[in-house]
Amino acid sequence: MKIPYFQLFWSFFKIGTFTIGGGYAMIPLMEKELVDRRGWLAKTDFLDILSLSQALPGVFAVNMATNIGYRLRGFRGAVVSVMGNIAVPILIILLLATGFRYWKENIWVERCFKGIRPAVVALIAAPVFKLSKTAQISWKNAWIPVVSALLIYMWGVSPVWIIVVAIVCGYIYGCLQDRKEVEE
User: In degrees rounded to 5, what are phi and psi of residue 150?
Assistant: First the structure.
């Protein structure tokens, strides 16, 4: 199925327009639009792209749009997806940057930003719990993200080292599973 470029642009334009809180807050909107509503990606494909996008350097939302657009329509699809995704945020950032020096002392603006914070936390937390089912996180392996978070938060371990160790361990585990299947 060849998705028209305009539909791809429009989907990412809507996602970029209605997301407050950055790339991780986009996850539920992307999943609803691209997996549930449009059916362009399977949940497992979405989770794979999510994992890859987190591991890549750069802006998470742009990485997601690039990877999804590329998966759906190649290089041009990646460009169209990114352009749709960043159009409104760039415009908003430009407007806020030009007016922020005038508004930063305004009590109403300060209160609005404080009111948005809990919603952003919820937007980031919701996909974590939802995607944990797709990622097959169970009581047997739930210790991995918990230990990773503790290492980062309490002992200041760089997330880069956590990712490198996870890649190596995942590779070794996959090789051991393959060997086990061959022996059976």
Answer: -65, -40
- Give the closest residue to 123 by CA, choosing from 45, 19, 47: 19
CB 80 within 8 A of CB 68: no
Our CA angle for 161, 166, 167, nearest 5°, is 100
Rg of the chain over all Cα atoms, to the nearest angstrom: 19
Contact 88, 15 (CB under 8 A): no
The per-residue pLDDT for range 72-122, each reduced to its tens digit, is 999 999 999 999 999 988 898 888 788 777 777 788 888 887 888 888 777
pTM of the full structure: 0.60
Enter the tokens of residue 93.
Answer: 């950032």
| Nearest Cα residue to 64 out of 110, 31, 18, 108 | 31
CA distances from 93 to 17, 97, 110, 132 (A): 12, 6, 17, 32
Residues in contact with 1: Cβ distance below 8 Å, sequence separation at least 6, in sequence order: none
